[in-house]
Protein 1
Amino acid sequence: MRWMGFTAAAAAFFVLGAVATSGTARADGDATAGQVIFKKCALCHSPDTGVNKIGPSLHGIVGRHSASIANFNYSPAMKAFDKTWDAAQLDTYLTDPKSVVPGTKMIFPGLKEEKDRQDVIAYLSTLK
């Protein structure tokens, strides 16, 4: 059986791939540009593993559970947040941190431009 010139198996692969990715956000940004934008974050956050500043290290943040660095004193609000930092969650949080986690200690107002957020998320995705 063929669908638009594809075998049934190939068509199913394309359909399942579209369904699997339709509900997930991913960092479509430019990691190099994100590294430059990250300078706004670097006053409080380090990209290096194990190096905490005013905020926790962001090394390995993508895929990590919130408030999970053992040697960092998170706010009660962040401890209660209970999320995994994937691209979609980071995008939401970086838009307006204080509205996403009311009571957070983070004073950063957020990145209002979607491109800036995607670039930073792409950069954070490289920190492994």
Note: The radius of gyration is 18 Å.
Protein 2
Amino acid sequence: MTHDDAAARAALVELSRELGRPDRAWAVLAEGNTSVALGDGRMLVKASGASMAIAVPGDFVAVGLPEVLALVDESADVDPSAGPSEDDDEAVRALFEAAAEQGGRRPSVEALLHAVCLALPGVEAVGHTHPVPVNALLCSPRASLLVEGALFPDQIVVLGTDPLLVPYVDPGLPLARVVRRMLGERLAATGSVPKVIYLGNHGMFALGASPAEVLRITEMAVKVAQVILGSLAAGGPVFLSVEHVARIDTRPDELLRRAALAAGTAASTSPSTNGDRS
């Protein structure tokens, strides 16, 4: 799908301001970033140092997806714990400086991982945040609880059944390469694209078909983290059975709600807190 540049920037401004709202504490100061695929081989991604809470159209830079992915795939078998080489650093610097010459701003280093996500089937928009409840788990020994199962139906509807947890890797090329490999393995094993990528000791990426879906995914991931944290104080989480998860994931009414939420029509199909369907 090809997007008008001005419309894409406007959508990213709206998404970024929602994700960066100070009352939510999902991304403070210059934390976090957002992106959208333009459909012509480029993506718009937040510039380095820009605050999502007060984002404006000029805070986003156009970058070529093939060029970024070529950097990620080059020497992808190198041990990520060793960090990028001097040649890698120079290649990233040259690519981002070229983008800055076009738009006047340098892309965030996370543009590398945004490109990896936007290359996945069905992913048109991405939001990266550091919500406090999510990071409370990601910075603890219990981070795996975020991906071990589902706790309630709306979690399945919005987040799907296969979130991905990635151990801490240095942001930039090493992280993008590890996530690219892990996503390839997940796709080969399940045929599905995760809605959420949790990054140990770092934050989360929400992958959506639209900016509206990215916001919904982030909202639900934060709620899930809050429920898990609360359950730990009451003896620990009790996950739904595999059979119940599969049933909810394929129910016709839930599929309709999932499509409506992804399209941004949540006002008429908002989930209730007790699991009833409107």
Note: The chain has one domain: 5-269.
Protein 3
Amino acid sequence: MAAFGKEAALILVDVQKAFVEIEDAGRRRNNPQAVANMARLLEAFRNRGLAVFHVRHASKEPGSLLRPERSGYEAIGEAAERADEPVLVKHVNSAFIGTDLEQRLRDGGYETVVIAGITTNHCVETTTRMAGNLGFDARLVEDACYTFDRVGHSGEVESAEAIHAMTLSNLDGEFARKETTETVLAALRHSAAA
């Protein structure tokens, strides 16, 4: 079993109320337990004194629910940051572009990044790809992220489950390793016992 020590950091990507508002407006998503799983990961990392980085998207697009002055910009309560936890603000898909995330990870000696958040096939995927390309041991927690149904290029509706699964397939083994909340929690327990 893998173990996560002090070299591991949790990165929560765009866990923001805009996505709750999108769902409330009728968009269907997958992984209904995802936010609860993010909260479980957050609690476990906090309890072990491990690093946590919150990433928030501040859209510059007119009308975006993720604009800083709108309610959708705020963090979802269960996975919100504490006063002593850094919040990195980005304006593009990758949490590494326009932020000091890479420098913070390097300075802290964090080699393993455990990634969760919203949405799987946008900012979570882009951040995960870049983490892998930068040489981090990226672990994407498949049941602690989600996406929405969307109309594909053919005009047909593609299910959130299919989009999520394809994104995981594209990333696993090439840019990251898939994890579940349970495998991460087990690895943390194993580390604490060692």
Note: The chain has a mean pLDDT of 95.
Protein 4
Amino acid sequence: MSIKRCSWADKSKLEQEYHDNKWGRPVHDDHELFKMLILEGQQAGLSWSTILKKMDALCDAYDDFRPEKLALFDEAKMKRLLSNSGIIRNRLKVNAAVNNAKMYFKLCDNYGSLDHFLWSYVDGRPILNHWETMQEVPANTPLSDEISIQLKKEGFKFVGSTIVYSLMQSVGMVNDHLASCSFRFPELKKL
């Protein structure tokens, strides 16, 4: 029997590896959740394959998105980021990453952890969808609207509803692997 993946994962080896090993798996590690939140913001207006191609350079430039380091980036460091051709050179996205690192600590003070904050919206269990085609998969939902609004109230930037929904998909809060995805859907369905 041949393996069938979600159609978006057929475009490149990088996307296939991401699909097979990360996308949709529940993540509860605060560092990984924060990293994905920033990466989803970096992706806004671009393709995820662009982020995957630049992943090593992004992680290197942003100190692996460790909030305790990123929160200390000053103007000189941010200026160096904007001159780094290996990453996404968008001033608003750079500023948002540093801002969000600072807001991360306030959010943790208020909610205990980013993990608790995010996963409380789904009662700690992934939402399991049963989409047949990629066209059925929404770009955002009322739940991602709600989380986006609260993140903005908490002072976060680049956390629109579409970005938040992409985050929810990537960290497994919602399982949007197509029902025909024999590679991942049956496994994640059991969670």
Note: The first strand starts at residue 127 and ends at 128.
